Amino acid sequence: MSPVLGAALDRVDGRAKVTGAARYSGELNLPNLAHAVLVGARVPSGRIIGIDCRQASVADGVLTVLTHLDLPRVAARPKLFPSLFGLTAHGQSFFPMQDDVVHYAGQPVAMVVADTVERAEHAATLVQVNYAETPSVTLLDQGRDQTYEPAKIFGGLLPGRNPTRGDPEAGLRDAAVRLDVTYRFAANHQNPIEPSTTTAVWDDLDRLTLHDATQGPTATQLSVAELLGLPPTMVRVVSHYVGGSFGAKALIWAHPTLAALAARRVGRPVRLVLSREQMFHSCGHREEQEQRIGLGADRDGRLGALRHDKTSLTSHYDDWAETSLEAPAVMYAAATYAGGYRLARGNTITPTFTRGPGAATGMFALESAMDELAYEIGVDPLELRLRNHTDVDPSTGNPWSSKGLRECYQRGAELFGWSGRDPRPGARRDGDWLVGTGMASAAYPVAAPMNPQRARARMYADGSAVVEAGISEFGTGALTAMTQVAADGLGLPFDRVRFVGGTTDLPNIAAAVGSAGSGATSSAVHLASTGLRDQLVGQAVADARSPLHNADPAGIVVRDGRMCLRDSPQTGETYVELLRRNHMPDVEALGVWQPTPPDGGGHGMFTFGAQFAEVAVDADLGLVRVRRLVGVFAPGRVLNRRTAHSQLMGGMLWGLGQALLEATRMDPHTGRWANASLADYLVPVNADVPDITIDTIEVPDSVVNPLGVKGVGEIGIVGTSAAIANAVHHATGRRIRHLPITVEDLL
Amino acid sequence: MRIDCVVNGEPRRADDVWAGESLLHVLRERLGLPGAKNACEQGECGSCTVYLDGKPVCACLVPAGQARGREVVTVEGLGDGDLHPVQRAFIAAGAVQCGFCTPGLIVAVHDLLARTPSPAEEEIREALAGNLCRCTGYEKILTAVRLAAGREHES
Ligand code: FES
Ligand code: FES
């Protein structure tokens, strides 16, 4: 591998973003652009018994008002399905404005289209809707007596109950030490800074172009085509820059299709931007939930049994639970295991992916319980993790594709200064502040798409190359990292390669979700680039006029665009010489990666890490300040140190938010989120930022994908909140078993 | 109403502006300057920060009429053909991810360093308190400020 892989190079999209030149999906200058604004249901449950659009329809600038009475019926009922599979990827099995039923507050009941956005917003306030309201369930507590065990979750892809290992009831019964604790979690919203936005344009030939803020252009294309009853050939999606997502734009919700229907109705391009308030009930959220953990251990803390049960609130029509049990099930060498999901149906949109989906809550529960166990038996929390460390995937007995967790613990403990910690809670004081430290393990599954992942590389006769794949850039640094992968594969300098993504015209890549984006795209880009390199080397070897004629291709290396013999570098020629001599304007190769199957061909595939936190709690006011965070992760190969560390840091700050700030509160009387704004939904601000140290352990991994990339988007958040809560316990002696932890909890 | 103002050094005019329209809307929708972002329309995120007569404001909270006869500078007007040192620092420090908060932050940092060329840590945090970033974890943004202030050795 050349030094370009992993290097902390500047982002290729940096200039466009710092100058304001980058165009996001709602920033296109289109002639005759009209604007759609959605009207949301005011009640959480019931029927629409009357809807009066007369005033709205005659308001200045209004082009049309659509309701369930006149919106065209969609061609298919959407089916919830995760976008990782590369197929249609609807966020929920419900499409609004098809009938008079209200399932959740904020559900679109009307859509106003006008010539300016203000006029559309104004007219939207004039739409009068009358409801026959029925009783609603919007809190887990209200649905608790009617929970059920789903046969399947996750769009029907995962069982509602994890495979049981051994006899966990016996394991618990026979344990010397037992723990049975329940942890509760507030609902969370992703709140990317850019609200979801779609601009829909129909051309003269009835072809649709959608400029959509999405994690997966193809997912938008296939999903909208299905709802409109069009072949995918008639729908093109453009998504160059996306202003953050964190799961909000991972699945496809109603608004792109509504924008397309509005545009068709008014015969003009239509832009639909969700307001910040609408973002809270239009693209899913992390569901309110609780998780019960049962641990059985011997006196030394070796786990004999783990029970992990989750209960959460889902929508009326989908069995959704984020997969909180997945990572905890394989974290430690517990001899016996059982775990399952229970759901309560509620008046809510179907919940969805939120950063670190599943693991962010599941690992909080497990790692809090492990800390409780450590105190119960008087063993250092890190030592307890080491005693339960497992070199095989305990759910299958298979080896890991790679692990690196011991190294993460060790490096993290060094960076943090863990050793010599006085374990006594409440023992350390700094003026008015009680100071404590805590740690937690982190794990997140390495997923891959199911469908082949493709990229195309083309080199021109001047030796520059363009490499293409249909991804969007939503902040991860993918454009930069993929340029690096391509430069490495082709043997070209970084600045001779341009990576292009952002439309469904390009080779197909599945949506970048669950930290799988860099693995999937880098594999296809690597195969395309090395394929093209090999093709050119092969051509040189076959060319009687080449200095490399008849050389062994295996003995040829390429550096800076020059092919030469590894053992005698003076023998060789440049790509440019080869192409010019043969009068070739360009050459092209397609790279196709058939992803590793989910069982890793007999390997457990997870990313691991270790988190450490120091907090100070105001002894009188209960205020928590996180002073330091140290996170060390083993994400396989790191493609760009700078963008990777920046993502990990962002993830850890999300963990801080989850621990201390983030909660979407439901008002059960109105059935609406009570704090649906950035003023009231607290996210970390720069004053909250502690001293954060991040390190990565690069573990080689030849199983997950060709370059051994495990991804960094999720693992940063996992375990952070547990480390912080454990530190709060160490500081104060108070064990808080819910998130977020607030001042009131510590008064 | 008609609004005449100077934007990024050039006289600009917008006609038929509705009374309730914000400066942000006029910049983005009428003057073709989408650099300042629209993310909350409530003054809560700072994504829409621009200069109005030399003072940074949340353009989403400023009624367009207030810009009449005044001078507006947006992120598009900061570089002088080339990148401004603040813009360069954001790239070099890795302070940019999705970029949606970036234009507002660049204006806020530009203003901070114009007033206080060598700000203390507290001053940096104070000046950027109104700018939300959901991606970076802020630390690289603070590094960018130090870098632009010529104090990169402290980062
Ligand atoms: S858009 Fe103006 S502060 Fe958020
Ligand atoms: S870079 Fe995405 S919000 Fe700051």
UniProtKB/TrEMBL annotation, chain A:
SMART domains xrefs: Ald_Xan_dh_C (SM01008)
Keywords: Molybdenum, Oxidoreductase
Sequence intervals crossing the membrane: none
Every Aldehyde oxidase/xanthine dehydrogenase a/b hammerhead domain range: 19-135
SUPFAM superfamilies (alphabetical): CO dehydrogenase molybdoprotein N-domain-like, Molybdenum cofactor-binding domain
Pfam families assigned to the protein according to its UniProt record, in alphabetical order: Ald_Xan_dh_C (PF01315), MoCoBD_1 (PF02738), MoCoBD_2 (PF20256)
The protein, known as: Carbon-monoxide dehydrogenase large subunit
Organism: Plantactinospora mayteni
Taxonomic lineage from the root: Bacteria, Bacillati, Actinomycetota, Actinomycetes, Micromonosporales
Automatic annotation (TrEMBL), chain B:
Alphabetical keyword list: 2Fe-2S, Iron, Iron-sulfur, Metal-binding, Oxidoreductase
Coiled coil: none
Species annotation: Plantactinospora mayteni
Bilayer-spanning residue ranges: none
Alphabetical list of PROSITE patterns matching this protein: 2FE2S_FER_1, 2FE2S_FER_2
Protein name (database record): Carbon-monoxide dehydrogenase small subunit
Domain of life from the UniProt record: Bacteria
InterPro entries found in the cross-reference section: 2Fe-2S-bd, 2Fe-2S-bd_dom_sf, 2Fe-2S_ferredoxin-like_sf, 2Fe-2S_ferredoxin-type, 2Fe2S_fd_BS, Beta-grasp_dom_sf, Diverse_Oxidoreductases
Signal peptide: none
Gene3D superfamilies in the record: 3.10.20.30, [2Fe-2S]-binding domain (1.10.150.120)
Location of the 2Fe-2S ferredoxin-type domain: 1-78
